[in-house]
Amino acid sequence: MSLKHCQPVELGISLSYDTCAVKPPSITTTTNMSAADKLKDLPKVDSVLKEQLEGFSPDKLKKTDTSEKTALPTKEDVAAEKQAKAHLDAVEGFNAANLKHADTQEKIVLPAKEDIDAEKGQQALRQGIEAFDQNALKKTETCEKNPLPTKETIEQEKSA
């Protein structure tokens, strides 16, 4: 079986290999064509397909309601998008050459008198601890006293 090369024809109906031999009509720009010439240039249609097309009745179609599935943006959405775009355009189109030079002034804030006194006390304490001389301490002996309980306290604990 040998297959013939054919041009695809979009009719919304599946065609067999036998009907592929039909060439689509060429588009001409002449307007002086008669009705007979127009019919002669139309492609030949298979008889089965022709019968199905002639037997078609729009009354057999079911009534359906069309619903729009894409939601259009609201006025607020459009306004917000325009504002965001205007902001981005302003930032992108900013010219740094229009800026003026500014000198920064650093202000030194002095601490309050209470803060200074508290810090001096902390420094004096730290200095006293660091400069402490351990050799100035006297030698002492530690005497640990562990008094033993009396007989009366032992008896009281046993009875309790």
TrEMBL record:
Gene Ontology annotations for the cellular component aspect, listed alphabetically: cytoskeleton; cytosol
Residues passing through the membrane, by range: none
A GO biological-process term: actin filament organization
Keywords associated with the record: Cytoplasm, Cytoskeleton
GO MF term set: actin monomer binding
PROSITE patterns: THYMOSIN_B4 (PS00500)
Region (Disordered): 140-160
Pfam families for the chain: Thymosin (PF01290)
Subcellular location: Cytoplasm, Cytoskeleton
Predominant location category: cytoplasm
InterPro entries: Beta-thymosin, Beta-thymosin_sf
PANTHER family in UniProt: CIBOULOT, ISOFORM A (PTHR20940:SF1), TETRA THYMOSIN (PTHR20940)
UniProt similarity note: Belongs to the thymosin beta family.
Protein name: Thymosin beta
Species assigned in the record: Petrolisthes manimaculis
The organism's taxonomic lineage, starting at the top: Eukaryota, Metazoa, Ecdysozoa, Arthropoda, Crustacea
